[in-house]
Amino acid sequence: MTNSTMPIMASIVLSGIATFMINPFLALELMQKGQSAGQVGLILGVLSGFGLARSSIIGRINARFGSKPLSVLGMLMRAAGLLVFLFETNTVMYVCFAIIASLGSAAANLGVKTELMRQSTDRRLVVMRSIAVNAGALVGPAVGAILYLVLPFDDILLICISAYVLLAFGLLPLRFKPPEDLGGVSPSVQRSGTGHDRMEPAFVMVIMLTVMYWLIYSQWSLVVPLSAYAGFGVQTGANAIYIGNAVFILAVQYPCWCMRCTMFAIRRFSLWALRVSFPLS
Question: pTM, whole model, 2 decimals?
Fold first, then answer.
């Protein structure tokens, strides 16, 4: 680990707090601004998934220019994209700004994640980052619910946007490692016998599983707030579900024995992926 590892971890926690301060409220707030349930689903789907769908392009930018510019720019784009939710406008405008916010979120997450991997070869860092994300997911809804008792949603959103801007400037003085020179060759691509590039089988499988996971998870931001409001009758009902989800995940991730099991599973999968991708002749 380097001197910037812990500040980066702290930025992950703070970014998570800012994100989950507003996530439980977005669906209901958009409906109050005149959007139908279907339109809200489209907007939130774009907000959560558009950037992820463009991760390969973001990854190339990361490899060319480095993680620091990507992380800083991503934070600022996220802040700029969320500004639209302060206003009552049409679905097209919401979707356009959601695209900007989603690209920014994906860029910042990928930049920070890549930098952590460059700083340490210890795979426990993967679990530590996940714990940092879920710590933000635990504290954020609680802070958002408390603030919602005394502040309107727009003020909470402004606090969230300000946090992203401050985090972007907070990353500027940190030292990031330069990108690796791969000589234009992607480690996820092999050259076939016919001379054409093809993706490794394990990489394709990981991509497919990731897409399936995010298709399911993208429903969370719409279904949970609406269901919680119908069940509890208050707009902060979804916050309790978000908090409970984060508590459960942290309870599973935090113990040392679980961390060892996770590391063992990662090692086993890595060995299996290598055997599948590069079979011995």
Answer: 0.78
